[in-house]
Amino acid sequence: MSPTLVIVGAGPRGTGLLERIAANAADLYGDRPLDIHLVDPHPPGAGRIWRHDQSPLLWMNSLAEDITMFTDASVEMAGPVRAGPTLAAWARQAGDGTVTVPSGAAEAAGALGPRDFADRRLQGHYLGWVYDRAVAALPPRITVHEHRHRAVRLAGPRDGRQQVWLEGRPAPLVADLVVLTLGHLGSEPPPEEQELASFAATHGLTYLPPDFTADSDLSGLRAGEPVLVRGMGLAFVDLMILLTEGRGGRYLTRPDGQLGYLPSGEEPVLHVGSRRGVPYHSKIGYDWTGERPPLPRFFGPAEADALLARPGGPDFTRDVWPLIAKELGFAHYHRLFTAHPERTAVHWTDFEEKYAAADPGSAALHTLVAASVPDPADRLDLDTLDRPLAGVRYPSAAALQDGLRGYIQADLDRRHDPAHSPDQAVFLALLSVYGQLTRFGDLGPWWHGFFSYLASGPPGPRLKQLLALSRAGVVRFLGADVTVTADGTTGLFRAGSASLPHTEVTARALVEARLPAPSVAHSRDALLRGLYADGAATTPGGLLRVDAADGRVLDRAGRAHPRRFALGPHTDARASGAFTRPGTNAPSFRQNDATARTLLTFLAARTPKERHAADQ
After folding, report:
1. Taking the CA of residue 439 as centre, how many other CA atoms within 13 Å lie in the half-sphere pointing to its CB?
2. pLDDT, tens digit, for every residue of 119-134?
3. Considering only CA atoms, which of 232, 265, 229, 259 is closest in space to residue 247?
4. Which of 354, 424, 518, 539 has its CA 20 to 30 A from that of 574?
5. At 576, phi and psi to the nearest 5?
6. Any signal peptide, and if so, which residues (predicted)?
7. Dihedral of CA 205/209/212/213: which sign?
8. Number of structural domains in the chain
9. Quick check: 48 and 183 in contact, CB under 8 A?
C-alpha cells in the first residue's frame, strides 16, 4: 500500500502546496509511490473564491503583472525555484494560443494588459492552469485523486494513521498525513449579529451578515429603497458593483470630463459607513523607478528573534508596533530624500544617522522630521492615515458628502502621482513587515485591517465609480464610527455616525460588508469545529495555532501534531495571500515550501514495513 497524503482544500493555497511538493519530490522522495487525495467541493485551482460561477463584473484587486503563483529567487526557502508566468504573462500566452484555456477565456486573456485588473473568473482559469501544471510536474509514481466533496471530520491517534470523513461517503479516506489548506470560511454570528438577524426576522426586514459578497443573496435589497451598509473595504466594493452595474446601470463620461453614472432604476440607495468612515486607499497607479529602500532596516529577522525570545512573548502595541512604525517611516523618508531631495532641508546621510538613533515615536524623532522635512504633507503621519476623520464633524449631510468626495478624489490624485512616490515605499515596507510578522502568531484584527487599508485597497477605477455613484445619489456616505441599532418602536434599522452628530438614517435593510471573522471554535466548517473539540489550540482571536516552522497543528499543551498540518487564513501563521507579487519573498511561498519538505521527508521514511509496524 502506498503512503497517503490528504489535502483538504483545493484552492490556490492547496495548489501552491502541491506545486512545492512537485518541486521537492525528486530530491526528498525519489521514485517512491504516493497517493495524494485532494478534497474540495469546488474546482481545483480556483476553489470557491475564484470559481467561474460568479459575475464577470467582479475584479481582481491587483494588477495582472503583480500576481503570481510561482517562486523566484527572492523566496528564502530550502527547495528549488520553479519559475512560472505571472497572470499577465500567462494571459498573453493564453491569448496567442501558446497555452490552452477553456472556450471563451482566450479572448478575455488576450485583451488583458499587464497593468489591467483581470476579472476573477479569468484568475480562476489561471489558477486551474497552475494546478494542472503542478499535477503534471509530479513524478510518475505520485498520483493525485480528486474528491469533489466536503470534508466533515478528522479523526485518528497522534501516532497512527488519520481518517478524513467526506460528506455523503460511507467510508473515510485513510492517510499518513493530513493538511488543511482551507480558505476563508463562514463563522456562526456573534451575539450582536444574532440579535440583528432575529430583529430582521421578527419585523420582516433584510439582514445580510458578513459573507463573501458573490455568495450573498441580494434579492431582498429593493430598488429605490435605502440600505444601510456597515463596512467600506473590498466587500463593499463588490456589493456596490453588483447592485449598480450588476442591475443594469452604466457609466459614461460627463461633459465636464468626470465619470458619470446612468441608473437603471433597479438600484437601492446605499448608505455606507465604517469605523474609519472612508474607503481603503486606492491601488498605486504608477511604476517604481530608481533606488529601492534597503529593507528590512529596523524590523528584520534579528529584531523579530529578539522580540520572540522575550519571556511571555512580545506585546504588539508596546514592543512590535513601534518598530513597524519606524520601518515604515524609514522607507518613506529614504524615498523622499533620494527621489525628491528638493523637498528636504538636510542631507540624507545626516538624517538617516539621527533617525536610526532616535527611539520610535519619541519627541526627538518628531523634532528631527519637522526640522528636516519642511512641508507637513511630506511627513508620514500614521495616526492620521489610520483615522482620517477622527475629530472631524460636518454641519450637514450635504457637507459630509462633499467632504468625503473631496477626500476620495485627493486620494486618487495622490496615489496616481509619482511625486508622492514615498507612498509606494511605505507599501514595500508593509510587505517587508508582513513577512516578519507571520512568525508572531495572531496579532488581532487591527493590524490586518490596517495593512489591508493601506496596501490592499481597490483599483483606482473602482473609486472613480464610487465617486460617480455618490454624485448620482446612489451611494450616500454616513461617516466614521458608525453605530447601528434595531429600533423596536419603528421596526427599522437605524444608523448614525460621529461625523454627523444628531442625524440618523433608517432602513429596512442592513448589510455587513465584510468577511466573517475567522473562528475555529465557531466555524461553520464541521471539520474545523471537530478539530477544536478534539483539543486543537486556538488564539484569543479564534485562529488555529500552528507551528510557524512547518504548519503542524498545535494542541492546548503546545505540542505539535506529527500528522496534522494547516496553512491559510484560519491559522495564526496566515500570510498576506496564497498568491502574491513577484520578487517579494512571499511568506505563503516560504510556508508552502517548508511544509512540503516536512511532508515528503516524513513520508519517505515510511517504508511499507515501518508503516505496517507503526499502524498495528
Report:
1. 20
2. 999 999 999 999 999 9
3. 265
4. 424
5. -75, -15
6. none
7. positive
8. 3
9. yes
